[in-house]
Each structure stands twice: as C-alpha cells, then as structure tokens.
C-alpha cells in the first residue's frame, strides 16, 4: 500500500517542475507563446527537454531576470518581455507562468499584467493569461492543470449563447492521441474544443517558411465559446475534488462536467464513448464498434504470451492509473505503480481497479523517485517495465524490456506519434507490449525460433 | 510581419567586411527574445558534472536537477556517480523555514550511501533568495564525513553561463593542492576544458602519451577528485574551451606558477598545433619530443587526408552555419569547413567575448553574419537568407534547421560521436556528409522541384 518515501534526498526524480507543465499546456493554444517569468535558464532547460521529445521547435520566452531584478522586482522585465513577444512573434496569447524565483521575491504577476494592459492600452494587445507555478509546489502535472484552468478562467468568464459543442480537456497527451480524440468526437457529431490541442503545434509538417508560432492549437474563439458548450469532459483519475477547468465552467456557466479516467484500455475507452453518446445522443459510428471488436480479438490472440508477466509502471499519476487499469485487463500483473506526484488519489483508484477485477493490490508509491522505484523493483522481479524513457537505465540493469509510454521519450524516435488512447490506441499499445515480450523470449532463446 | 531582428539587439549582429567592426556582447539576454542561453547554474553544472567519483547535489526545487540528469555524454572509465541526479527537492515549507536542515540531512544520507570522494553542492535561484548558508552546511558536513564538501555558488539569476564557469572553477580550486604526489614526472600536463563527450579525452590522452607526455588530471572529462587534488604537480595546463576552465588555469598560474596553453582539439590544424605547442613547451626537458610529435601528426594525417578528400568531392561549395555555446569551437569549425571546401556564412555563439568576435570578423569571408546571443527568429531568418546546406549547433537549434529543410551536425553535450582529434575530424566530415548528402532534402519545401510524376496511361 502507499507509503511516503523513506528518504530526505531525491535521486533521479520521477517528476518535472510545475512551470514545464504550464508551458506544455500553453503550447497547445492557437498563436500562443509560453512565457516564463524567471531566470533565462528555466526556459532554456525546458525547451531543450521538450524539443528532445517532440523534435519540433519549442520557443519559450523568458523575462531573463538578473540579480538586480531579484532585488528590485521583475515587473519591468516582464512587461518588456511581453511587448517583445507580442511585437516579434505576433503572439495572440502570451501564457505567463511564474517560477520559484519570482514566487519567492513575491512579484504580483496579475497586477503587473494589469499595469501592462493600462500602459500599452493603445496597442493591439494579445490575450495575457497568467498562472502561478512555483516549482517548489507540486509537479509538472499540477502546472499543466493549473494553466488549463487559468486559460478557462481568464478567457471564458463571460456567458455566450449555447452551441451544443463539447469542451474536452484531455490532459498531457500526445499529438497523435489528440488527433485521434478529435476524430472520435467528429464521429459523434460533436464539435470539440480540445484544450490544449498540441496535434499540430508539437507535430507539424516540413515548411518553406519558419513559422514564428507553429500553426494549430486550440482557437481562441473556441476557448471563449466554452461556456456555451453542451458539456465538458476532462480526463484524469486525480481530478475529482480538485479545482479544474471543467469545474470552473460548471460552477460559473452551468456546463455539465464529466470527469473520466484517461481512456486507456477497453473499459476506459468504453466510459469515454458512453459519455460521448450521452452528450451527443448519438450512437457512435460503426467503425468504432469494429475497432473495439478487433481489440477484444487481439486480447484473445495475445493473452497467453503476457499472462502473469510482472510489470513495473511509473510516470504521471493519471497515466499510471490508466496503464494499471489496462494492464490489469489484459492479464499483466502490475507489481509496482509509482508516481513522483503526491496526494493524487492513485492508491484508491488502483484499489478500485483491483477490486473490480478481483486482483491483488500492487505496491503503490506516490512521491517516488527512481532510486526508490529501483530499490522496490529489485525485490519484485519484474518482467516488463512500462513508462517513459527515464526508466531505461533500470530496465537495462534488470535486463527486461521497457515499453515506452508518455513523456519524455528521449531515446526513441516518434514519441509524439505514439497512441495509447481509445480502442485504436489500446490496440497499438497492446501490440507493443506483446511484441516486447516476444522479442525478449526470442533473444533469450538459444534456439532462435522462427515463429512464436 | 515585422523584421526578425529586435531593435535592442541590432548591435549584436555584424556582417564581415560591411563597415567597421562593432559588435556588442556580454550583455544580459533580452527579455522575451527567447535566447538560446542557459543560466549560471547550467554553467557550473556542465563544468563539474563529469567528475565521476564526486556526489553532485543540486540544492533547490526539483527542476534544475531533473533537467540535468545524465544530460552530457561525459563518459567515465570507472565510477559513474555523476550520472545520477541528486536534489534536495525543496518544497514550500523549506522555502519558508529555510532549506539548511534538509540539505544537511540529504548530504548525510547520500554521502553514506555512495561513499563519494567529494561532494559538490550547487545553489539554485531560490537558495540565493532564502539565504541558506551553503558554506556553513558544507563545512560542518565536510568535518563530519571527512571528505571535501564544496559549495558551488551558482544561483541561476546571477548572470549567464560564464559566471557559472567561474563558480565551478572556484569550487575546484578548493580541491587543488590538497594532496601531494611526488611521483609526477617533469613532462606532464593537466587537460582542462574537455568533458570527454563520446570519449574524446581518451583520444587526446592517447596522442599525448605517444608523445611521451603524462596526463595528471582530466578537468573534468572522466575526472577524478584525487587527480584534481594533486594536479598542481603537473608542469603545464592545456586549456580548451573559451571560458569553462580558463579561470582555474589562471588561479593555478597565480598560486602555483603553472603556465597554461590555450588549445583546441577540433579540426586538423588546431589539433596538430596543440600537439606541436606542447612539444615546443617541453623541448628543453625532452629533446626528442618535437620529432616524435611530427611523426605522430604525419602518421595521423596520412590516414585522414585521403578520406577527407573523398568527402570533399561531394561537399565542395556547400554552405554552412555555426551556432555554438562558446566561441572557441567556432574558430576550429570554420577551419574544419574550409578543409571540406565549404563556406561558412553564419557564425555565432551564446557567450563570445569582444576579442572572440573580432577574430571571427578577421577570419571569415566577406558577408558572413556574426551574431551574439541569437534566438530562433534571427537564426531562422539568417538560414533562409544565406540558403545554407548544413547547420552546426546544439539541441535547441536542431529543430529550427530541420523545420527549414537544412542538414544538421550535433555539436553539443549529447553528441555520441567523438569530434575531437584527427579521428574526430573524420567523424565530423562524415557526419556533415551524411546530413548534407541525404536524398531527403529533395522533398522538403525549400528544395522541392516540381517533380513531375503525373500518372501516364500505359502505352501512351
């Protein structure tokens, strides 16, 4: 069962800092430039980290504070920076996220932004959304959700006429998954405002001209129209009980809000399709039923290869919860589920999964780092590791396959094109898991079987 | 849309041969300009990082440690403690009540667990603000554990990478001279400013050993604490890299009277020159060293030049752009491109000095764009203007080049291919060739000819 970590220090963190999550969220909005109010290094480090996964230009502006700003306040640099981003990038939205530096010196960002609006009111100003993301509180997921909520609060405060569309807050999912979600919504006849939508902005085509801000992203007009939607759906086990974009729209504008787990695996996808059916009043397109049927058929075809394989799963809380649910469906025995986040309700959501399927509860750790994951896993003898690239060194040491899922994927190609959501995503993930096991069997075998 | 050049940055861009040389540099980055630079902490971290038997503890919130976990391909021939990412992971209550107790406990725990030869403790932005007494904690922990525990004053906001280099050098200087080694031979050097990316320091050590020169300390690639402690016994410091370790060499010259030579191991001429300079320095102690070195260079070139010639046949006349962290790499790269018959049209760095840029203006062709502390908007505009074929840079520049359909050579922390030494020149040429000659460029928008593949009816 979940316990707190026995160490004071952190070794090989299984989390990133809050502002990175905010940048990821802002990256999925039309014409947006993420802007970190802090020292230059934060923006540069995060750019590097994100670029290595997506292999796309990722511009994150910075107020580039120096020592004197730390003493006298970063307001002037923040204003100058916003002005530069607006004039040079032609930003339609500047997403200002704070850092530990500016939170600690106590810069009042909303007030500085208000001053900026007054000082430059004669210019054609972009939308400016600010979010408080001190890196000493929470993880990148908190930063991500906070930024999404801030966008909703600061841009969708005013009532608009009903339009029957859908607000979809998918969480931090891949561009390919985002595209798939849009197709599914389209097939239900639902015009979806997906926030954020990184499907183009972090996975764009080769171009003749360098786009200062990549095309795509959630249109600002759609964001402002969110109060008129028929419903909101937001993904994440950890969201119930928290203040989110969906709960804001519900409370302020009465938009019904469906909080669902990430649709990973059969039952998670079923729940998502059921919600879409309820909102749209339509049956899904028959192709999804066929996808579902093929998925169940694959489960049957592949079940013997993976039954009882012991898996270690780690990563972001909502992703881990979804993966545990999926792995449990297909007969993989999760022995450890770990996340770097804290107080996310992960143990109780895994307990629920285990109860539903009559399974034994795995070790669950919140606030974990890779030192702790490795220490636990040594005794648990995993056959399989499921998570992002940062677990590679452990997987290599134990000589077991790593099935890469989530963010970051720094040691493989195409992380931005991985799909895990919906029936099709489950199919792709299932194939990868089975093949990882087969490949291991084949390479361990002295025979060199030609069929398995 | 407006021009890509920020008004405030106009004087940080110069075109060779167009007007008198005036280029502003060493400035704070412009807010909102998306500089490619990092921060003080980054500078310290990259310099000290490769010391493989030291504990590197980042005192701050989790990000700074998370983003620098195993970030450099700095290889070690032994311990690999540097490849772990340690953090005090400061939280809100630590910020309010001070992070010293957590730092003390973390050091206690980690030193017991890993038994390092020394520990470096890096301060981050926040530590400078909440006023933790890093020095005092390190001092008492050093006494308790009996190993050097060294504070690195690397608060991110205190400047750019350069200040970080200096903070790292100051921390290392605390180690230098704390251990005497009477066995050090008279013909001996320390290698400064090489980080053993892709095993490069081993290539250089091998050349030096063939010349009869002993290498005492690697600072810091494949580095060891005890070597740094005794490195004041070496006769000469070889300093590569514009800024990273020059401060340490100067401190050692002042305190121990050890001279230093500035060298570069990139490219044919600079590599050969570095070895000849070392040989000349020791000629009075070892009369045969100059002849041995000449023979070594000739042997290496005999293997290298015919290979380069083959590659040059394809690359002749192609255009290159260079954007690097420190300017020293830029000089060597310009020469290296000349060997391949290529023209450098853009050259820039994050932290070049006025002297660096003056020299670049002197050695580049007319019309070459020289830029300090550039950003994606400028780089993309320059790439298009000069219609370059290959861009040499780091991780953050790569997607800019690729998006525009331009080849790329990774010359950064993460490189897996050794680019130093004579063998490195060949690797470099092969990498440039592999990228520039790929057929994929035919399909990118900037090169796509209207390949007329209209379907034809059979027999038409």
Notes on the protein architecture:
The complex is a heterodimer of chains A (about 450) and B (about 450). Chain A has about 450 residues and is α/β, with parallel strands linked by helices. Chain A contains 17 helices and 14 strands. Chain A has helices at about 20-25, 40-55, 65-70, 75-90, 100-105, 110-120, 140-155, 175-185, 220-225, 245-255, 265-280, 285-305, 315-330, 345-355, 370-380, 390-400, 420-445; strands spanning about 10, 30-35, 60, 95-100, 125-130, 165-170, 190-195, 230-235, 255-260, 310-315, 335-340, 365, 385, 400-405. Chain A has a 5-stranded parallel β-sheet, sandwiched between helices. Chain A has a 4-stranded parallel β-sheet with strand order 3-2-4-5, with helices on both faces. A 4-stranded parallel β-sheet of chain A has the order 7-6-8-9, with helices on both faces. In chain A, strand 8, helix 10 and strand 9 form a beta-alpha-beta unit. Chain A is globular, with a radius of gyration of 22 Å. The mean pLDDT of chain A is about 95. With about 450 residues, chain B is of the alpha/beta class. Chain B contains 17 helices and 14 strands. Chain B has helices at about 40-50, 60-65, 90-95, 100-115, 125-130, 135-145, 160-175, 200-210, 225-230, 245-255, 270-280, 290-315, 325-340, 355-365, 375-385, 400-405, 420-435; strands spanning about 15, 55-60, 85, 120-125, 150, 190-195, 215-220, 235-240, 260, 320-325, 345-350, 370, 390-395, 405-410. In chain B, the strands form 3 sheets. A 6-stranded mixed β-sheet of chain B has the order 1-12-11-10-13-14, with helices on both faces. In chain B, helix 7 runs parallel beside helix 10. Chain B is globular, with a radius of gyration of 24 Å. The relative contact order of chain B is 0.12. Strand 1 of chain A pairs antiparallel with strand 3 of chain B, so a sheet runs across the interface.
């Amino acid at each position: 069962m979940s316990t707190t970590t026995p160490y004071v220090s952190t070794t090989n963190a299984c989390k990133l800092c809050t502002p990175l999550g905010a940048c990821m969220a802002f990256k999925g909005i039309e014409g947006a430039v993420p802007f970190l109010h802090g020292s230059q290094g934060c923006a540069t480090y995060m750019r590097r980290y994100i670029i290595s996964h997506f292999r796309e230009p990722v511009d994150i502006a910075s107020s580039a504070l120096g020592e004197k700003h730390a003493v006298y306040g970063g307001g002037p640099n923040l204003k100058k920076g916003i002005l530069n981003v607006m004039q040079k990038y032609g930003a339609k939205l500047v997403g200002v996220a704070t850092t530990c530096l500016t939170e600690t010196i106590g810069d009042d960002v909303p007030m500085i932004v208000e001053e900026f609006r007054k000082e430059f009111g004669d210019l054609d100003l972009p939308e400016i959304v600010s979010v408080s993301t001190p890196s000493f509180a929470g993880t990148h997921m908190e930063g991500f959700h906070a930024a999404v909520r801030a966008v909703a609060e600061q841009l969708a405060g005013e009532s608009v006429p009903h339009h029957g569309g859908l607000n979809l807050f998918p969480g931090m999912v891949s561009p390919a998954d985002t595209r798939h979600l849009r197709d599914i919504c389209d097939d239900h006849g639902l015009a979806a405002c997906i926030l954020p939508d990184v499907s183009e902005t972090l996975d764009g085509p080769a171009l003749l001209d360098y786009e200062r801000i990549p095309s795509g992203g959630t249109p600002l007009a759609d964001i402002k129209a969110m109060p008129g939607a028929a419903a909101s759906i937001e993904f994440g086990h950890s969201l119930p009980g928290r203040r989110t974009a969906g709960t804001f729209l519900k409370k302020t504008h009465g938009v019904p809000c469906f909080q669902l787990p990430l649709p990973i695996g059969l039952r998670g996808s079923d729940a998502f399709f059921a919600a879409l059916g309820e909102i749209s009043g339509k049956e899904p397109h028959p192709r999804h039923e066929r996808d579902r049927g093929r998925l169940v058929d694959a489960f049957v075809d592949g079940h013997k290869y993976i039954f009882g394989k012991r898996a270690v799963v780690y990563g972001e809380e909502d992703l881990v919860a979804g993966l545990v649910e999926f792995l449990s469906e297909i007969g993989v025995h999760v022995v450890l589920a770990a996340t770097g986040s804290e107080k996310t309700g992960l143990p109780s959501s895994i307990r629920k999964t285990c109860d539903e399927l009559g399974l034994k509860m795995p070790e669950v750790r919140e606030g974990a780092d890779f030192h702790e994951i490795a220490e636990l896993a040594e005794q648990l003898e995993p056959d399989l590791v499921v998570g992002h690239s940062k677990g590679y060194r452990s997987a290599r040491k134990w000589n077991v396959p790593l099935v890469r899922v989530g963010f970051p994927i720094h040691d493989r190609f195409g992380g931005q094109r991985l799909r895990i959501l919906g029936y099709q995503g489950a199919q792709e993930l299932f194939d990868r898991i089975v093949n990882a096991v087969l490949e291991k069997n084949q390479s361990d075998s002295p025979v060199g079987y030609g069929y398995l | 849309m407006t021009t890509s050049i920020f008004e405030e940055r106009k004087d940080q861009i110069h075109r060779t041969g167009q007007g008198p040389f005036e280029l502003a540099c060493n400035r704070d980055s412009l807010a909102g300009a998306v500089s490619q630079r990092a921060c003080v902490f980054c500078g310290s971290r990259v310099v000290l990082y490769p010391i493989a038997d030291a504990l590197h503890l980042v005192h701050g919130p989790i990000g700074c440690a998370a983003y620098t976990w195993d970030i450099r391909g700095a290889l070690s021939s032994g311990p690999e403690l540097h490849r772990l990412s340690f953090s005090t992971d400061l939280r809100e209550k630590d910020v309010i009540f001070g992070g010293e107790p957590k730092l003390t406990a973390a050091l206690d725990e980690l030193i017991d667990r890993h038994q390092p030869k020394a520990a470096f403790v890096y301060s981050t932005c926040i530590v400078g603000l909440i006023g933790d007494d890093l020095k005092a904690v390190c001092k008492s922990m050093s006494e308790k554990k009996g190993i050097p525990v060294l504070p690195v004053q690397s608060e991110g906001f205190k400047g750019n990478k350069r200040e970080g280099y200096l903070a790292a050098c100051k921390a290392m200087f605390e180690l230098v001279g704390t251990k005497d080694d009477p066995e050090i031979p008279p013909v001996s050097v320390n290698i400064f400013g090489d980080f053993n990316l892709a095993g490069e320091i081993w290539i250089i050590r091998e050349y030096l050993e063939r010349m009869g020169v002993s290498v005492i300390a690697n600072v810091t690639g494949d580095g060891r604490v005890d070597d740094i402690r005794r490195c004041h016994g070496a006769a000469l410091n070889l300093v590569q890299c514009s800024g990273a370790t020059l401060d340490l060499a100067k401190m050692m010259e002042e305190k121990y009277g050890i001279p230093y030579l500035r060298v570069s191991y990139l490219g044919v001429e600079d590599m050969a020159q570095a070895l000849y300079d070392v040989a000349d320095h020791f000629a009075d102690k070892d009369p045969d060293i100059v002849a041995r070195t000449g023979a070594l260079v000739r042997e290496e070139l005999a293997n290298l030049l015919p290979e380069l010639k083959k590659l040059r046949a394809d690359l002749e006349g192609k255009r290159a752009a260079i954007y690097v962290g420190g300017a020293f790499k830029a000089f060597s790269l310009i020469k290296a491109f000349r060997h391949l018959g290529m023209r450098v049209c853009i050259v820039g760095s994050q932290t070049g000095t006025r002297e660096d840029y003056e020299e670049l203006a002197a050695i580049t062709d007319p019309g070459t764009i020289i830029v300090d502390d550039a950003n994606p908007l400028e780089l993309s505009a320059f790439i298009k203007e000069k219609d370059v074929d290959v861009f040499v840079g780091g991780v953050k520049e790569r997607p800019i080049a690729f998006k525009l359909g331009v080849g790329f050579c990774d010359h950064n922390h993460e490189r897996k291919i050794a680019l130093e030494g004579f063998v490195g020149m060949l690797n470099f040429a092969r990498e440039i060739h592999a990228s520039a000659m790929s057929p994929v460029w035919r399909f990118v928008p900037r090169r796509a000819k209207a390949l007329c593949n209209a379907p034809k009816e059979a027999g038409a």
